[in-house]
């Protein structure tokens, strides 16, 4: 039961001015993610494919402006995830709470720095 509670947020706060999303988890732990990190780790199929392509061909140029890191909306997806709507219209990435918790960027969880979005444990 404790494992399930730690992956369930008590509250989620989007601070647009600071460019952060803060989650207070069921066990009291607090995780703060930058919107830049969230967008760079968007779990949707399109973004995952773009990251995979960039790894295979790092010199590939992408036309157009860079992806927005400004969140204009958010909605819960069931009891297990959150979906962000980005200023540029992107909004298909579903961030599973267990993955966000596993990727907590705080120094206690990851002293080496923020990891990529990790699969749930």
Can you list the strand order of the major beta sheet?
Answer: 1-2-3
Number of domains: 1
Poorly predicted ranges? none
How many alpha or pi helices?
Answer: 4
Order of helices and strands: HEEEHHEEEH
Helix content: 10-25%
Rough outline? globular
Under CATH, the topology can be stated as NE0471 N-terminal domain-like
Arithmetic mean of pLDDT: 90
Describe this structure in words.
The chain has helices at residues 2-6, 35-40, 45-56, 97-102; strands at 9-15, 20-25, 30-34, 71-77, 81-86, 94-96. It has 121 residues and is an alpha+beta fold. The protein has a single domain, classed as NE0471 N-terminal domain-like, CATH 3.30.2020. The strands form two sheets. The protein has a three-stranded antiparallel sheet with strand order 1-2-3. Strand 2 (20-25) and strand 3 form a beta hairpin. The chain starts with a helix and ends in a 19-residue tail after the last helix.
Brief characterization of the structure:
The chain is 24% helix and 28% strand. The chain has 4 helices and 6 strands. The protein starts with a helix and ends in a 19-residue tail after the last helix.
How would the blueprint of this fold be written?
Layout: H1 2-6, E1 9-15, E2 20-25, E3 30-34, H2 35-40, H3 45-56, E4 71-77, E5 81-86, E6 94-96, H4 97-102
Antiparallel strand pairs: 1-2, 2-3, 4-5, 5-6
What characteristics describe this protein?
121 residues; alpha+beta; NE0471 N-terminal domain-like; three-stranded antiparallel sheet; 6 strands
